[in-house]
Write a structure and sequence with these properties.
With 335 residues, the chain is mainly alpha-helical. A three-stranded antiparallel β-sheet has the order 2-4-3. A three-stranded antiparallel β-sheet has the order 5-7-6. Strands 1-8 form a two-stranded antiparallel sheet. It starts with 20 loop residues before the first helix and ends with a strand.
């Protein structure tokens, strides 16, 4: 049976064949899980007889389809076929997951707070961009004070003030995502609100704006933009699996390590992308990156999870989290 390069890999990873075991076979390696599948097929074909090659292929295709639809423990009940769709068609499978285009509650999230500040500052008179195309310094300082509060602002500026937009990374990311969502754009050296943004604000308010920000952050914004980790593209590509885990386990406080371990069990191949380091293992590197990108800067920043750090462990990267009510309004699983 010929496997298409864009088909789900028969090893059950949920990833496309061309990005999983196809390259390993070309290199002469034994792909993880593929040997087991081939052994299973050999046993299945024993004693079988077919009138034609087409009949044999039809038989194998039917078996592989059944296999791909079977729940997998490491995917917490998802099948490899469902995982494949989670990874490659997250917004195109209403039978599995839906994303309302308008929320039925007012969204409370850090990104929404910052976008509201930006929208108010732009208003009808627009907001002049700097020579480098960033937001003006005074607005960045005012937004930081409103967002962080006086004590948080003092802590933020203890060693370095806010002189440019990137000095306030949360605002910088919010502005970039708002542009990717088509809500804000630059025109003749000034930031202006897009026509669709003004319409949504007038008719739906923040409840209509948030879904646009969510899609832009999940699908267009580069999650690795603010860190120095390797690409690890599967972390962003599997955002829906992260939300699935959070939906299943997030009612109780759990550690970031808990979610990182579940991610690694689902996608162990990502460990091969980690750079060898003398002071931490590949598991620690990927787990740390996953916690930062998927849990803190995605789920936390978009108001889908509440994050709590231990003040006594100031320099620790670990934290605990639980889901917030907004999650169930943003993404609805039908599994």
């Amino acid at each position: 049976m010929k496997i298409g390069r864009n088909d789900p890999c028969p090893c059950g990873s949920g990833i496309k064949y061309k990005k999983c075991c196809d390259g390993k076979q070309e290199a002469g390696e034994q792909p993880s899980g593929t040997g087991e599948v081939m052994g299973e097929l050999r046993e299945l074909l024993k004693g079988q007889s077919f009138a034609s090659l087409e009949d044999a292929n039809a038989f194998l295709r039917h078996h592989m389809q059944q296999r791909s639809q079977a729940p997998i423990d490491d995917f917490h009940g998802l099948s490899s076929e469902q995982m494949h769709r989670f990874l490659h068609f997250p917004f195109e499978m209403p039978h599995l997951v839906t994303f309302p285009s308008r929320l039925d509650i007012a969204p409370e999230a850090p990104i929404m707070t910052l976008v509201n500040l930006l929208v108010d500052a732009i208003g009808e008179e627009r907001l002049k961009a700097t020579a480098t195309g960033n937001l003006p310094r005074n607005f960045c300082r005012e937004a930081a004070l409103a967002f962080l509060g006086e004590e948080g602002y003092r802590e933020k500026t203890r060693y370095c003030g806010i002189n440019t937009e990137p000095d306030f990374p949360e605002l910088h990311v919010a502005r970039l995502v708002a542009e990717l969502a088509g809500l804000v754009r630059k025109y003749k050296g000034k930031f202006i609100l897009g026509r669709e943004c003004r319409k949504l604000l007038a008719e739906q308010g923040p409840s209509g704006i948030y879904p646009r920000l969510f899609r832009a952050f999940a699908g267009e914004y580069n999650w690795g933009y603010r860190d120095r980790y390797p690409d690890f593209s599967i972390i962003q590509q599997s955002f829906l699996f992260t939300l699935y885990l959070l939906q299943r386990f997030g009612a109780e406080w759990r550690t970031s390590v808990f979610y990182a371990d579940n991610f690694l069990r689902a996608f162990p191949a990502v460990l091969g992308e980690a750079r060898p380091l003398s002071f931490e293992t590949a598991e620690e590197t990927v787990g740390r990156c996953y916690a930062i990108r998927a849990l803190d800067r995605f789920a936390g920043f978009l108001g889908l999870a509440e994050i709590e750090r231990d003040p006594a462990k100031r320099f620790s990267d670990e934290f605990r989290l639980r889901k917030l009510p907004l999650l169930e309004h943003v993404v609805q699983f039908h599994l």
